[in-house]
C-alpha cells in the first residue's frame, strides 16, 4: 500500500495549528535544516533572529513571537497550494507585550516543501507597523 505524499497545503495547515497551540519546537521540526527565510524589514522586528535561515532560527522565531507578542486574532482567508508550494492569505491582530501596542495586519505566507520539509518561509505583513508597535 502506498501512502499519499504530504502536500504543501497539508504541511502549512499543520504549521499554523502548531503555532496556534504555542508548540514552537514542534513547528520548527517541520523545517529543513536550511530555510529560505524572508520577512521584509525584519531586522526591525525584535522576535526575528539575527541570522534567520535554519531550523534552529525558526524555533527561536516561534518562541520569541510567543513570549514577546500575544495573538488576539488570527484569521485565514484562503490557502492555495499544490504538492510543493502553498500560499496563505489572512489577517491577524497582535499585542506587543513590551509596549502594550496593538497592531492589525493582513498577511501573505509563501511556504515551499522539499521532501516533506519546509524549505521556504516568506511572510509578507505590515512589518513597519509591527516594528512601530515594538518601539
Task: Provide tags for this entry.
135 residues; 30% helix; five-stranded mixed beta sheet; alpha+beta; single chain
Helix content: 25-40%
Class per helix and strand makeup: alpha+beta
Mean pLDDT: 93
What is the chain-wise order of helices and strands?
HHEHEEEEH
Regions with pLDDT < 50 over 5+ consecutive residues?
none
What is the global morphology?
A: globular
- The proportion of strand residues reads 35-45%
Biggest sheet, open or closed, and with what strands and sense?
5 strands, mixed
Radius of gyration: 15 Å
C-alpha termini separation: 55 Å
Number of strand elements: 5
Number of helices: 4
**Strand ordering within the main sheet:** 1-5-4-3-2
Tell me what the structure shows.
The structure is a single chain. The protein is α+β, with helices and mostly antiparallel strands. The chain is built from 4 helices and 5 strands; from the N terminus they run ααβαββββα. It has helices at residues 8-20, 24-28, 55-68, 127-134, and strands spanning 31-38, 69-81, 85-96, 101-114, 117-124. Strands 1-5-4-3-2 form a 5-stranded mixed β-sheet. It is globular and about 50 Å long.
Write the layout of secondary structure elements.
Layout: H1 8-20, H2 24-28, E1 31-38, H3 55-68, E2 69-81, E3 85-96, E4 101-114, E5 117-124, H4 127-134
Parallel strand pairs: 1-5
Antiparallel strand pairs: 2-3, 3-4, 4-5
Quick recap of the structure?
This protein has helices spanning 8-20, 24-28, 55-68, 127-134, and strands at 31-38, 69-81, 85-96, 101-114, 117-124. With 135 residues, it is an alpha+beta fold.
